[in-house]
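Here is my example:
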Amino acid sequence: MNAKATDGDGPDVKSVDATHDPGAEGASRRAEPIEHAAAESIQVAGGGLVRVGTASWTDPTMTASGVFYPTAASTAEVRLHYYAETFPVVEVDATYYALPALRTSELWVDRTPPDFTFNIKAHALMTGQPTETRRLPKSIREELPEDLRAKARIYAKDLPDELRDTVWTMFRDGLAPLADRGQLGSVLLQYPRWVFPSNESRASIEEAVERLDGWRCAVEFRNGSWLNEKNAERTLRFLRERDIAFVMVDEPQGFKSSVPPVTAVTSSELALVRFHGRNAETWEKKGITPAERFRYLYDRDELSEWVPRIRQAATEARETHVLMNNCYASYGTTNARELAALLADLES
């Protein structure tokens, strides 16, 4: 990698080289020999199942003709059907921006096999983050106080108690078909970088888990202090005592929002690993799409680092979900197949 000057707010960032950003065609060529590598869950000897997938199936860079989907896969129904034949799990991030609709969940159930798993990202208002007012359901917008209705973005703390309750109710109601069919893997509670370790923050996590009672929850932090020398033991104990899955991450290091790649299983039901790429240049860059932020293709050695960690996690949890969030074009799907192939080789 070639050095690039820092902006003064983070570490010295590096520009990504051609190995890690070869373009859609280059990434797709790497996946050709292992096209079906991730189609089935991987049974770890002496442990649980490992499901490998991506954190999107609808990003425009991914749905572009010939990138990941067959040219004929031109509808949402056909694309989801194809994805579910290729991977056993997917993460839904659209629910972070807009509350899930019952009809959408019904269609997801209809279009996937019963053993296919959806991990759902919690809505922004559920984890202390702002949401665009215009993207709230009409029934909520109409009940907003006039001063809030005029704002472009609002936080849950701004809402009257009854509307805050409504957000959680609508989230649960919208995902009921997945839960009823046993296809809801977990709800991802991703807390922003301004949420640091405190009694208030831990109480917020407990409240979220209580509101999602009966569903598996996973927590991802975006503030490194949760896992620093002072707080790591307490953080993991807090999650373990409540059977909440700690989200293990691979991401750029050196920022306040960076969480170290700690391997820790805090729930006997679920271990979860998310790969965000290692593109430090874009990690905290403003005004770019998620696909550009996480635009990074892991090489084989970087993926291999995680194989023994994932296998160890799978011996401690009933299921382990591995999600590639580097969903630029075919980067995530290629890396998901490569990682699944590495894990399968270890078990063969």
